[in-house]
TrEMBL record:
The active site is at residues 214, 530. Residues 177-250 form the PEP-utilising enzyme mobile domain. General (non sugar-specific) component of the phosphoenolpyruvate-dependent sugar phosphotransferase system (sugar PTS). This major carbohydrate active-transport system catalyzes the phosphorylation of incoming sugar substrates concomitantly with their translocation across the cell membrane. Enzyme I transfers the phosphoryl group from phosphoenolpyruvate (PEP) to the phosphoryl carrier protein (HPr). This is Phosphoenolpyruvate-protein phosphotransferase. Residues 25-151 form the Phosphotransferase system enzyme I N-terminal domain. Mg(2+) binds at residues 459, 483. The keyword Kinase applies. GO terms for cellular component: cytoplasm. Keywords: Coiled coil, Cytoplasm, Kinase, Magnesium, Metal-binding, Phosphotransferase system, Sugar transport, Transferase, Transport. It catalyses: L-histidyl-[protein] + phosphoenolpyruvate = N(pros)-phospho-L-histidyl-[protein] + pyruvate. InterPro entries: PEP-util_enz_mobile_dom (IPR008279), PEP-utilizing_PTS_enzyme (IPR050499), PEP_util_C (IPR000121), PEP_util_CS (IPR023151), Phosphohistidine_dom_sf (IPR036637), PTS_EI (IPR024692), PTS_EI-like (IPR006318), PTS_EIN (IPR008731). It is an enzyme of class 2 (transferase).
Length: 601
């Protein structure tokens, strides 16, 4: 790794060493090369709100603080794990610092003091944290000890981490960044990423995160080159430094030399030329070499991606993630607002199908407006999320279904239910939908006729294994490979520490996909893949060979998948898929698939 440096004055108000031609390695999660000035996201000091808490709610407030502290400990542990692989003495130095931060978050004077202030002063957790930090800092200063004085900065940093977690602080300044900049941050949530405008921001990199987390999915949908899980990213980088983010190789280069920079610019020009060439496929049919038609749909994270889906010739919207309606706001969208936005999307697709998924909030996707509906679970992936939350709070579901039914009157809309695990859940949704239909008709509101088809996501192993039983109650299946892989392999897809274990070619995953597909075909209902596997041309032949004829993906991936399937012979792909399904070793499966792809290249 090249790492040359020279001194200069700069960097957030203090003398700093300029890092030159430094290459950092992470996980490339969204392809492309971005070159531009760095914008280092500094959480900065937060202004803590202060308000009184009534006696009956004090314990709940203490628990809210405890949840924020637990989250802070998890964050510090992740950073310590990443730092342990840094070269030289950096790992040890940063490790000592993070050990100190972890100690402050575990039964320390700070923690005890905050809990005491909440109970005795009857104030909210944010105000208690701010008051305790101020008190500790003052006591350290009064001791006139240089070592303790230096620790004040650590106390304040820990306090700010607690406040960010309590306030669910979001980065809101992306619209004011210079055009073409590269965002560098410790971490970015999906909601943060949703605020990025690709016309202004060239790309981003973070210290935390994995290739299959929702932040990565958002980056791919927006077409932003991105690298996550980047070791040492925030050390020595200053605002304005020239940064290259290579979302293909997973490298981040800080202040590259002129020769290195020219090389990246040539590679970027080649990629742009290839993309321009792929645009010529837009009007060509999505058919295999031997004449089998395949439906290629677009996944949409945000309404502004709709133009991109139309531009690449998507046959429809295979997955509209409605979480965007709830992100970065303090209130819940009402029925009319949801109807207006969904109607605009449906109408703009001009009769092509739009599959709108009901709310899938939970796990890493947390909406501020919904934080009062559930406590932070020990394991977010297994907690109250998606359809479980919608059925526990049926008013949320009723509002969404009403908006979808109304929007369906303006085009071809289908309704998709996330994280279904049982027939009872599907039945309950159908009952709620019937109630909503009667209510809308009594109001004289125009709704879809016939009613929208109702399908389910197959993303839990239990749902895949009971697909035969679920099929008679559903109009279609959509296999969500992202969560299906996560739950099958017991891997947190957003955790870079286990990212290498996340394998779509694990035989258990492939058998669940096969079982679901065959169950749908027997029941004569459509089945699609709408996870990230659908948008990777490496898997196209295998998925078609297993019987899939509908793929939904980020719009930017659609041209490369179309190019791959137009070169495929389906008979050969089916034969290779059967051979693969006889295997039990992941390495052998990967070799068989890659050999087939190489032979067709």
């Amino acid at each position: 790794m090249a790492d040359r440096s020279s001194g200069r004055e700069g960097g957030r108000g203090r003398a700093a060493k300029v890092v030159v031609d430094r290459v950092l390695r992470g996980v490339g999660v969204s392809s492309g090369i971005a070159i531009g000035p760095a914008h280092v996201v500094d959480a900065g000091a937060l202004l803590a709100p202060e308000y009184a808490v009534v006696e009956a709610e004090l314990e709940a407030e203490v628990q809210r603080f405890a949840a924020a502290a637990d989250k802070a400990r998890r964050q510090v542990r992740k950073l310590k794990s990443k730092a342990s692989t840094l070269p030289g003495s950096a790992a040890e130095e940063i490790g000592f610092l993070l050990d100190a931060h972890f100690a402050m978050l575990s039964g320390s004077r700070l923690m005890r003091g905050v809990e005491r202030r909440i109970r005795e002063d009857k104030v909210n957790a944010e105000a208690a944290v701010q008051a305790e930090i101020t008190s500790i800092a003052q006591s350290f200063a009064d001791m006139e000890d240089a070592y303790l004085a230096a620790r004040v900065a650590d106390v304040r940093e820990v306090g700010q981490r607690l406040l960010r977690n309590l306030m669910q602080h979001k980065y809101q300044a992306f619209s004011f960044l210079p055009e073409g900049c590269i965002v560098l941050a410790e971490d970015l949530s999906p909601a943060d990423t949703a605020l990025m405008d690709p016309r202004r921001i060239a790309g981003f990199a973070t210290m935390l995160g994995g290739a299959e987390g929702h932040t990565a999915i958002m980056a791919r949908s927006l077409g932003l080159p991105a690298v996550l899980g980047t070791l040492g990213l925030m050390q020595g980088v200053q605002n304005g430094d020239t940064v290259v983010v290579d979302g293909i190789t997973g490298q981040v280069c800080v202040n590259p030399s002129p020769d290195v920079l020219d090389g990246y610019r040539r590679r970027r020009a080649e990629l742009l030329a290839e993309r321009a060439q792929l645009k010529s496929l837009r009007k060509l049919p999505a058919i295999t070499r031997d004449g089998t038609a395949v439906t290629l749909n677009a996944n949409l994270e945000l309404p502004r991606e709709l133009d991109g889906a139309i531009e690449v010739g998507a046959s429809g919207v295979g997955l509209l993630r409605t979480e965007f309606l709830f992100m970065n706001r303090e209130d819940l969208p009402d029925e009319d607002e949801q109807t207006e936005i969904l109607t605009r999307i449906v109408a703009n697709m001009d009769g092509k199908p739009v599959t709108a998924r009901t709310l899938d909030i939970g796990g890493e996707k947390i909406a501020t407006a919904l934080r009062g509906y559930f406590a932070e679970p020990t394991n977010p992936a297994l907690g109250l999320r998606a359809i479980r939350l919608s059925l526990k709070e049926p008013k949320l579901l009723e509002t969404q279904l009403a908006a979808m039914l109304r929007a369906g009157a303006h085009g071809n809309l289908r309704i998709l239910l996330p994280m279904i695990s049982s027939i009872a859940e599907v039945r309950r949704v159908r009952e709620i939908m019937a109630t909503v239909v009667r209510r809308l008709r009594r109001r004289g509101v125009k709704i879809a006729s016939p009613l929208p088809k109702l399908g389910i996501m197959i993303e839990i192993p239990g749902a895949a294994l009971s697909a035969d039983g679920l099929a008679p109650f559903c109009d279609f299946f959509a296999i969500g490979t992202n969560d299906l892989i996560q739950y099958t392999l017991a891997i947190d897809r957003g955790d870079e520490q286990v990212a290498d274990l996340y394998d779509p070619l694990h035989p258990a995953v492939l058998r669940l996909v096969q079982f679901t597909t065959e169950a749908a075909l027997r029941a004569r209902i459509p089945v699609s893949i709408c996870g990230e596997m659908a948008g990777d041309p490496r898997y196209t032949a295998l998925l078609l060979g297993l019987g899939i004829r509908e793929l939904s993906m980020a719009p930017n991936n659609l041209p490369v998948v179309k190019r791959r399937l137009r070169g495929l012979d389906l008979v050969e792909a089916t034969r290779r898929a059967r051979t693969i399904m006889d295997q039990t070793d992941q390495g052998r499966i990967a070799a068989l698939l890659d050999d087939f792809n190489d032979a067709a290249a």
